[in-house]
Amino acid sequence: MAAFFEIHDSQLKGISWNGSQLSLRFRAVRNEWTERIGVGTGKTYYQDIELLIQDAEMDLDSPNLPIWLLDGSYRAASQIAGAEDIEDGYIPASLVRADEAELQLEGMNEDTQEYIAVRARGGSMTLVFLGEPEFLQDLPL
User: Fold this and answer.
1) What ranges make up the beta strands (E) of the chain?
2) Where are the domains of the chain?
3) Half-sphere exposure in the Cβ direction for 75 (13 Å, CA)
4) Widest CA span in the chain
5) Splitting the chain (141 residues) into consecutive groups of 10 residues, what average pLDDT does each group show?
6) Where does residue 19 fall: left (phi above 0), alpha (psi -120 to 50 degrees), or beta otherwise?
7) I want to staple 28 with a disulfide (CB 3.0 to 4.6 A). Which of 10, 22, 71, 87 is the partner?
8) pTM, whole model, 2 decimals?
């Protein structure tokens, strides 16, 4: 089974700093795909997560934050995660650590109607679950 988080359709709930550590909190879209003899099925969930980036830098093109994420990307020079979860551009649900990680987040702030981009990068990134997955829908693949 491949389980991963998408940036698209997730909500950015907050950003905070603690020294050189950046915390990004999301209500993230989690996909779990299963393939049986060439036929795939999937389930989609929402799950509250936090990404902690050490030795972080961040670029934000507005004093406001995007709330609804419409696009974005994730990359890392290397990562420790379950092999079945590794999907290019997605955050593996089994992520233990990513080195030289970079996130690009783009979305709308509903209050100001701005389209905002956030770029966060750092020496390492870890994933923290803040709640259990909440079922959203089945996906026939």
Assistant:
1) 2-18, 21-36, 39-54, 57-60, 68-80, 91-92, 97-109, 114-129, 134-140
2) 2-140
3) 5
4) 50
5) 89 96 97 72 94 97 93 94 76 95 96 96 98 89 57
6) left
7) 10
8) 0.91
